[in-house]
Design goal:
The protein is mainly beta. It has one domain: Beta-galactosidase, Chain A, domain 5 (Distorted Sandwich), CATH 2.70.98. 5% of the residues lie in helices and 44% in strands. Strands 11-12-13-14-30-24-23-18-21 form a nine-stranded antiparallel beta sheet. A six-stranded antiparallel beta sheet has the order 17-28-25-22-19-20. A five-stranded antiparallel beta sheet has the order 1-2-3-4-5, with no helix packed on it. The two termini are 25 Å apart. The relative contact order is 0.17. The mean pLDDT is 97. This is Aldose 1-epimerase. It comes from Metabacillus litoralis. It catalyses: alpha-D-glucose = beta-D-glucose. Its EC number is 5.1.3.3.
């Protein structure tokens, strides 16, 4: 196994480095210090052909100009905060509204646009990179100086493990996730409509017109959101369900997980034979089928369009700080935020 570090580009006078994590089977994860972005993951199909299975770009400029959070760590708080407002211990806070009236994914120039420090990890059974960042008190309206780490580790079982940690000197909010868009066809040969998804989840969160949770947890039973038994994504995406229509004819919903660290999220592409198993200690996964992925740009030669990738964002529940029935994503002084998600790539 080996780690190769190279210069990837530059932004605001800061050098962005790439890190290629390759195991003994040729499985590779490429990531950069800008936003901890996973730029590519090369994994074999059922015939042993190594191909990239995530959406990404080959330049800093493309990420800064076009990226809808491709492959990045988003924070301080993943997802949307209603009206960009919350209270902590009776004190009101206002955050920038960067999606209509919502505060989205930590706001403008958040963790996904920052250049992180990086430390290479080389052990006998795993290799990786530990990315580190200091988010200053008041950044994008959040209280507290927060020290954040995101560690990417690869082993010889074709597994990528992401561990997030954070500490603060003042009570604040933290809810991190990775925003990779997966497409198991390999090199974006086709969209993800025929991908099959299986979730160990009996409930999803209903969304309002601004994609904010209403607070209602809805049973998936007999609805397009039922992925308890594996089914093609298009069965849900092409349905006439009001919730599917509301988010741009697709899925952009949090699913509450029944189990943790037990193959609770499984994505498959039958043509390539590739299978992705995701295990986490998080409460939920936000499934986003790239319903709003449109624009006058290309993704490594493929025109941007709907349904080119699927995001499986393991995280705490969105807007939890404003929802009395949700566990709020509060980090206090003396506590450590610590969560792990593992991605295992295999074939049928």
């Amino acid at each position: 196994m080996k780690v190769v570090k190279e210069r990837f580009g530059e932004t605001n006078g800061e050098t962005v480095y790439s890190y290629e994590l390759q195991n003994d089977q040729g499985f590779k994860v490429n990531c950069i210090s800008l936003g901890c972005i996973i730029t590519s993951i090369s994994t074999p199909d059922k015939n042993g052909n190594l191909e990239n299975v995530v959406l990404g770009f080959d330049s800093v400029e493309e990420y800064l100009e076009h990226s809808p959070y491709f492959g990045s760590i988003v924070g301080r708080v993943a997802g949307r905060i209603n009206n960009g407002k919350f209270e902590l211990d009776g004190e009101p806070y206002s955050l920038p509204q960067n999606e209509k009236t919502n505060h989205l994914h930590g706001g403008p120039n958040a963790f996904d646009k920052r250049v992180w420090d990086a430390e290479i990890i080389e052990k006998e059974n795993e290799i990786g990179v530990k990315f580190s960042l200091l988010s200053n008190d008041g950044e994008n309206g959040y209280p507290g100086n927060v020290t954040v780490n995101a560690t990417y580790l690869v082993n010889n079982q074709n597994e990528l493990t992401i561990t997030y940690t954070a500490t603060t000197d003042k009570k604040t909010l933290i809810n991190l996730t990775n925003h990779t868009y997966f497409n198991l066809s390999g090199n974006v040969k086709k969209d993800i409509l025929s991908h099959k998804l299986k979730l160990k989840s009996d409930e999803y969160l209903e969304l309002n017109e601004l994609f904010i949770p209403t607070g209602e947890k809805v049973s998936v039973d007999k609805k397009p959101f039922d992925f308890v038994n594996k089914k093609e994504l298009k069965e849900a995406i092409l349905s006439n369900d009001d919730q599917i229509k509301k988010v741009g004819q697709g899925i952009d919903h949090p699913f509450i997980l029944n189990e943790n660290h037990n193959e609770e999220i499984v994505l498959e592409d039958e043509t390539s034979g590739r299978k992705l198993i995701i295990e986490t200690d998080e409460e939920s996964v936000v499934v986003y089928t790239s319903n709003m992925l449109e624009g006058d740009f290309q993704i490594r030669g493929v025109q941007a369009k709907k349904y080119l990738g699927i995001c499986l964002e393991t995280q705490g529940l969105p807007d939890s700080i404003n929802q009395p029935n949700f566990e709020p994503c509060i980090l206090d002084v003396g506590e450590e935020y610590n969560t792990t998600t593992k991605y295992k790539f295999t074939t049928n």
